[in-house]
Amino acid sequence: MERRNIIWLASYPKSGNTWFRSFLSALFNEKEFDINDLSEGKIFSRRDTIDEVLDLDSTLLTEQELKPLQSKVYQYLSNQSDKNLFYKIHDAFVLDQNKKAVVPEGNTKCAIYFVRNPLDVVISFANHNSETIDTTIEHLANYQFSLGNEQGKQVKQPLLTWSEHFLSWTQTPNFPVYVLKYEDMLASTFAVFKNILEKLDLKYSDEEIQKAIEATSFEKLSKQESEKGFKEKNPSSPKFFNTGKSGTWKEKLTEAQINRIITDHGVVMKSLRYI
Hints:
By secondary structure, the protein is of the alpha/beta class. It is built from twelve helices and seven strands.
């Protein structure tokens, strides 16, 4: 019998996923919060998890061979647990042109999809990859863009375009998907986080929620990274927790860059009231 206990924390990169994972880790655990010990929201693309379950070296497999097996790994992990399992995922929801899901839908309880204005995403993502903003704008419009590689610690993660990524997670799944806008998370942190916990049927007091929010404020996350590093940071990036703000595009992007992003993603941006 399949268990429906997986909760996906899904997003295009640099959209608030790690912040929320940090919040959950602080909320669920009584010990002092540590950014390098995120007990909740382990990463779907981690190669060591895949290798351990399959008992093989996944670097010997092609992407076409590995991706269907990756779904089976998390099907197995789900069926072995009687608890909710939170997993971070950057992959687009669909595996290939046949629109097959990259995750085991039968074992999924729901997904939380974090979305952020792409005008801000390009700035944060450029910093993360130590690339130019123009190059990053091209990434967001590239249907074949992906993270990871066939030999790295994380397996390849096809993203599609920024718009297609959003649509793949919000229009395709056969399970509930709760959309959280990064801007709302910043503006009304307590209300947004409490609301999503209620949707997940997780019972915590206002005091417990507020304590976890305070423990994982951007300032505290950034301070911990400065003091002891963050193992999920791209080695080429100066910082993972860059500014944590909304609207920096107004000072950082040129008119041409803004127009290009709106041309590429205007339909989805309008649906989210970003323009």
